[in-house]
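Students often ask why we bother predicting the structure of a whole assembly rather than each chain alone. The short answer is interfaces. A chain on its own may look different once its partners are present, and contacts between molecules only exist in the joint model. In this exercise we take two input lines together and write out one structure for the complete complex. Read the inputs first and try to guess which parts will touch.
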Amino acid sequence: MSSLPESIAGKTLAVLGGTGPQGRGLARRFAQAGFAVIIGGRNAMRSSEVADALSAEIGIGVAGTDNLTAATNGDIVLVVVPWEGHAELLTELKPALAGKIVVDCVNPLGFDKQGAYALPVEEGSATQQAAAILTDSTVVGAFHSVSAVVLEDPEITEVNTDVLVLGDDREATDTIQALADVIPGVRGVYGGRIRNAHQVEALTANLISINRRYKAHAGIRATDI
Amino acid sequence: MSSLPESIAGKTLAVLGGTGPQGRGLARRFAQAGFAVIIGGRNAMRSSEVADALSAEIGIGVAGTDNLTAATNGDIVLVVVPWEGHAELLTELKPALAGKIVVDCVNPLGFDKQGAYALPVEEGSATQQAAAILTDSTVVGAFHSVSAVVLEDPEITEVNTDVLVLGDDREATDTIQALADVIPGVRGVYGGRIRNAHQVEALTANLISINRRYKAHAGIRATDI
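Now the answer. The structure tokens for the assembled complex follow.
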């Protein structure tokens, strides 16, 4: 990993909620990029099974454990849990996450027969909720709309999307942009302060509409940069 | 205009609030694509001056008048007014807009020294507000984040962005996608129902952040479609 920026080289990544498709997909791509990855989940046994299956498939060891152990052992922690348990889990893990960069990847969406829609969030967005709870961490929002199907597809070597990285701390957003860049095809792009996270989270609902209409796994690219 | 889809061929386009940079830029590009374009504004004299200046610059006649006259004479009406006067103007023009496709292009944004941010909108978004007022029109949201600087730059022949088109009426969204497609480089992409318009409007704040950081005039592209 000698070519990686110092901010991320040799770091251990924890993926909380890493047993779902999005978390598994990110874990896969980061493990393939050479990072030590720990999948966290509500149930350590289940996480361990998911990690073992992933490890066997990609031929690289990935650890699986409970969310607290993952949070404790990760240098950079990605939060990919369902929106329903978001506030509760982060409150519980607050001490374990102190001093770390926490990357919130959660999209607060509802679903009905017309598709997906953005849920109202009291704090404005999942990222802002995380920042309100994790006052001893540096919270960044990122990886909201990277297709889980694409991430988990071993045939897809280049993931054709930008990742908008939202945060109020320049060093942290630079770090997570660099982290996004390690996935082949992905480009980490600074997307604004966390007060502008809501629309990036909610845009995933539009991408779901696009996917339905065009039978695709759409991502987004910023042009002219 | 024989190669244009029937839904837009020969239509007159009204651009309400067309005296501002975004409206002027859209008027320019649609006039260049062969459409009859009427620029509307609060002040007919001012609109006429803007239209005359644009006509002289591009060598194509563009009309300028008050918003009511423009709304009355347009077959398809684009709303590019400041957010502050949005509800009031649409309420006033409701009878003139009846039976027409109204394309809301308005981004309800606030600005402070940290940049742009999304304003809360009671109806959810400018597009939804327009739909709530204009119950006799078919409201579509589109053209939210096409850079005015790019649209107005005569040196830029290809505008490198997708336009997300939001609406609940398939025929109307198809029509406005076709309209977006007439601007060289632009692709009209269905972006979901109007309940998902907020985040597309608000995303313009993120693009402003991107523009600041990268010294660019960013647009967005959906990938994999």
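Check your guess against this: The longest strand of chain B covers residues 36-41.
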